[in-house]
From TrEMBL:
The ABC transporter domain, residue ranges: 3-228
Protein name in UniProt: ABC transporter ATP-binding protein
SUPFAM superfamilies: P-loop containing nucleoside triphosphate hydrolases
SMART domains: AAA
One Pfam entry name: ABC_tran
Gene Ontology molecular function, alphabetical: ATP binding
Organism whose genome encodes this protein: Thalassotalea eurytherma
Length: 229
């Protein structure tokens, strides 16, 4: 298993009596394309932040790639995340005045183990493979379409060949045609790199693309399901 949650509880300070996340056991098999759906405010982003160490639970253990996050310092978690975890954000979080290559290079900068092996040529090859024209690679990303910006976001998340890729509602602003194209590209790249994918969305119609599908409500003990695989 690439991920294991054990008796994990997380509450925001104003809601200590009602945990947002309350998971007895949850595991993700390596290489899986895992889809989690739930409504706005249900805790999807909180779960992902726990999964990559951006938030820390008040109780329990989170193990990712054999490492227990609660035993690591913030600096160790930052290094671990940069080396092993890719993240595709809902709003892409690109720097508008940087071009595509420069945005992807930011991910390489944060990963000390990849700085020497990844250069502009390799980044260009990945962007072209993802469907970005060479004439667009050197434009500020603010001049690119939403679909092109998405490809830059995928490239940034995949450039370090992460073992785990997290996607937080990246298709929410897309029409159906562009959404399906995005998912096909993303899943193909995950298969090519043997990357485990955890994808969250409010849109249940996306579930056909994934190996395992779960509602976030199933995760929490108070909703009647203590173990989720």
């Amino acid at each position: 298993m690439i991920v294991n949650f054990s008796d994990v509880k997380f509450s925001y300070s104003s809601l200590k009596e009602k945990p947002v996340i309350d998971i007895l056991n949850w595991s993700i098999p390596q290489g899986t394309k895992y889809f989690i759906y739930g409504g706005s405010g249900s805790g999807k982003s909180t779960l992902l932040n726990l999964l990559c160490g951006l938030k820390h639970p008040q109780n329990g253990s989170i193990e990712v790639l054999g490492q227990k996050l609660e035993l690591m310092s913030n600096r160790q978690i930052d290094r671990f995340r940069a080396k092993n975890i890719g993240y595709i954000f809902q709003q892409f979080n690109l720097l508008n005045y940087f071009n595509a290559i420069e945005n992807v290079q930011l991910a390489v900068t944060f990963s000390t183990s990849h700085r020497q092996s990844i250069n502009a040529s390799r980044i260009t090859d990945l962007l072209v493979e993802l469907g970005l024209a060479k004439t667009d690679i050197f434009k500020p990303v603010e001049e690119l379409s939403v679909g092109q910006q998405q490809r830059v976001g995928i490239a940034r998340a995949l450039i370090n060949k992460p073992k785990l890729l997290i996607a937080d509602e990246p298709t929410s602003s897309l029409d159906e045609s562009m959404r399906d194209q995005f998912l096909s590209t993303l899943i193909a790249m995950c298969d090519e790199n043997k990357t485990t994918l955890v994808f969250v969305s409010h849109d249940k119609s996306l579930k056909k693309h994934f190996d395992i599908v779960k509602s976030l409500d199933e995760f929490n003990k108070q909703n009647g399901m203590a173990n989720v695989y």
